[in-house]
Amino acid sequence: MTFSTWLTFFVASWAISFSPGAGAISAMSSGLKYGFARGYWNTVGLILGILAQFVIVAVGLGAVLATSEIAFAVVKYLGVAYLVYLGWRQIRTDAAPVAVDTGDPAQFSVRELVVRGLLVNLMNPKGTVFLLAVVPQFVNPAHALTPQYAALAGTLAFTDLVAMGVYTLLAAKVLRLLRDARHIRWMNRIFGSLFILAGAFLATFRRQA
């Protein structure tokens, strides 16, 4: 892979990372509830999900997912169900005021946030099919594939770390304005509805023939 090829992918990665989607919704939801420092753990899970998708594409399983109706449908509807579940749970979240830097440690779980981010990206065949369509364009088959896939995966992971950090921080800043339980309740309903809407869009996604 030449430097110019990598640079092109680097530029494209910023657009990919900042594009609205389930990952951005998840990041903002976490920032809203836990603040930036804690909510950013969700981004760790999102990145792990992206890296897992790169592995799926690199070992050829992405092609199976893209061409098999059954495999694609299973993963897709698992993703739809999970996003709807997150939306419903967000809507029903307690409307008590939340503090940015404090809160009950017993109600905060790093593991839960990381797993949620991982599943949001991993159970999204749209992302895998997208990577399967885009990544090969930047890979030179005449050279070792592993270093090239590693470079592309690391690049997208970096831009996503920044982009999801921005989304998390923006939502966390809103926390300072949310002291009324009614405002928090409506914000939870908005994010919950966005999760469900993302699930609905995923349900309408069709693999390319």
Automatic annotation (TrEMBL):
Instruction: Return the GO cellular component terms, semicolon-separated.
Output: plasma membrane
Q: Please name the InterPro entries in this protein's record.
A: LeuE-type
Q: Where are the transmembrane segments?
A: 6-28, 40-64, 70-88, 118-139, 151-174, 186-205
Q: A Pfam family this protein belongs to?
A: LysE
Sorted alphabetically, the keyword list is: Cell membrane, Membrane, Transmembrane, Transmembrane helix
- Where, subcellularly, is it found? Cell membrane
So which domain of life are we looking at?
Bacteria
What GO terms are given for molecular function? homoserine transmembrane transporter activity
Q: How does it sit in the membrane?
A: Multi-pass membrane protein
Main localization is: membrane
Family statement drawn from the similarity comment of this UniProt entry: Belongs to the Rht family.
What is the protein's name according to its record? Threonine transporter RhtB
Source organism? Bordetella genomosp. 7
